[in-house]
Records
---
Amino acid sequence: MEKPPRGKGILIHLLLPFCCSKMLLAIIFLQISPQALAVSSESHWTYEGSHGQEHWPDTFPDCGWKAQSPVDIQMGSVQYDPSLPPIEPEGYWNPGSGDFTLINNGHTVQMSLPPSMRLHGLPSDFSAVQLHFHWGGKGHSKGSEHKVDGKSFPAELHVVHFNSEKYRNVSVAKHQPDGLAVLGIFLEQAGDVANPAYDHILDHLDKIQYAGELSQSGHFQEITIAPFNVRNLLPAHLGHYFRYNGSLTTPPCSQNVLWTVFHQPAHISVAQLETLQKSVYCTEAGEHPAELLVDNFRAPQPLNQRVVFSSFSVGPSGYSAGEIVAIIFGVILGCLSFFLAGWMVAKRIR
Ligand SMILES: *[C@@H]1O[C@H](CO)[C@@H](O)[C@H](O)[C@H]1NC(C)=O
Ligand SMILES: *[C@@H]1O[C@H](CO)[C@@H](O)[C@H](O)[C@H]1NC(C)=O
């Protein structure tokens, strides 16, 4: 908040010896309350409407800066960096004895994570803070925040970490230029094959149906869930990812996030996706009409001068080396069977 104008500060000093404390409080209150009120009403944001994403920069200036997230990753323009090592999660398998807490904050479903969960393979060591989801409405193909060659996935998981090698906690780290690292995981629907890891979260959504009110302690109403193997929420293959410098994808859009977006999606069933799409509301209990929490994804932001790096080589056609090998192999196999069939037919005719 801005310092009070000098004149008023002097006024307070002059009045101080003469006033009773109540009057002084009243003066201070008059000085700060208009700003305080402005902050509380302006800090409200949504994805659509009068507080929607195109208006975020009016209230949260960083949202209008030049290195924002998410981005549409163009396979033809990513730069292969062979020095990027695989991501190595530590403590994801067995994240300690404390329970996880799950909240509906009206913008997303968010689960707290213990700092014993760490990431190696980034420029610093990072510790986990929370994970949350972005998703679309039922029957939409959209829902993810990042895109690949213009293609959306139905949902995206973000696992947020802070730089624990340099900073004491996330409150300090979130104001530092190298403070945060987020893992982005595309969620793809895989018919009726459920991913049991996701049930550890999805099974509890009916208990946080409504957006929690801030309690007096400043915390959202929350439920606790037993710790589970968080590694299983990630794709099998952690070696292939995209890396770029970006921001938080929600206000205040702080531009201090080192992004790792995995190339391989994690798979969930159609039923699991629908549970995410129809279980939680962005409105509070008792609020009418109740509004489903869906379409909580930000549009891709301009890349501007930034480069998106990849940990794997992407061919000029936009296919990764692995995909090219698979295609060549498939073509050879196809030709072979074609000739084989032809040869057998010819043999019969003879
Ligand atoms: C984070 O660390 C700072 C500096 O040591 C401290 O003042 C603050 O209370 C800590 N915040 C939390 C949430 O632990
Ligand atoms: C991110 O920004 C930092 C600081 O400018 C730079 O050193 C680093 O190479 C950038 N990383 C990527 C992936 O662009």
---
Amino acid sequence: MKTAEISDLQKEYLMPTYAPGIALVKGLGSSVWDAEGNEYLDFVSGIAVTNIGHSHPALVQAVQDQVETLVHVSNLYYNEKQPQLAQALAEHSGLPGAKCFFCNSGAEANEGLIKLVRLWGSDQGKYEIITMQQSFHGRTLATLTATGQEKVKTGFGPLPEGFVHANFNDLQSIKEAITPKTAAVLVEALQGEGGVIPADPEFMSGLRTLCDEQGILLLCDEVQTGMGRTGKWFGFQNYGVQPDAFSLAKGLGNGFPIGAIVAGETLANTFQVGHHATTFGGTPLACAAALAVIKVVEEEALLENTLQKGACLVDGLCEIAVKHKSWISEVRGLGLLLGLVLDVSALPLQKKLQEKGLLALATAGNVLRLLPPLNVSQEEIDQALALIGEACEELEMKQVRA
Ligand SMILES: *Cc1c(COP(=O)(O)O)cnc(C)c1O
């Protein structure tokens, strides 16, 4: 099928919740191909999902083997892959006494985290969760209420109670939002959808101290920042701060849908039999995929590669930003979750890059978000920088002429 045909079929049969432009039919490593056979360098990675690239042979093999052995059993039975995956995540988290719960998406992981915290606080009458302005936590009713962006809430009321917003990187505003009903603060170590904004180190450490003083929980949404994206297994590890629990999804299965809650000792045994469940959570197949992802990140030293290639990308982007300082203001981010911050809309740049064969993502209006796979090569980084440089030249010429 060609793009026009796919697009017509989609318009007829799919709810118009998305507005795609190109149709992708194949992926390999850092590249994807559209229905017309054009190749693109994929610096979106399904928004921090395909962290080890497309069709990684070790992942393909693990999924194939597991499909032939056992795809699904109910959680009424043990399956050996689930505790193995939980052990790997608990160990990499560094949280003492950590335990996991598996589900299927980021929103579902956060929804579970919210339930976990409410159950923990229920006998003290604590249920409020403080979340940040510009945050993003998902599209279910509770998680869109937690999200600090009005645009995702409009028209969906009545919304669940118990969510309060404060300002990101502003400890004073968190202090002011605390009440006797506060159970937890939920924060992203780096706001992805919010515009690639990293937390300040003093904010993260101050938050931990504040939560301890007040007897409330610190939760991290690691759905986008987790699984090596920032150069550490989890974003909070950049700050030397440990949350009481965190959520995962996106990169965990490299495209195989799986989400998780990882909770330290305070919350590890709060859910008991019957408190929470989901049919597809932690199937042998999903866990085999995630175990393969973790093995690849370890064996191919992808945390190191993320830091090294991230630093190269930042250097190159800074050079471009200096050249175009009349309309590019900043480069920011962690690891391979980077943003080129413009003084204008990032959409024309995203569009121009796509025409040139580089997929990147305009975010929060004026930020071009770059999320290459964690095993991206130096050559691919150089190629992307050349394309971004060219696109910026052309856009500037157009601005000058206009
Ligand atoms: C994508 C994202 C979510 C939602 O994940 P879904 O799998 O789309 O439900 C939640 N939190 C953050 C930080 C995200 O980036």
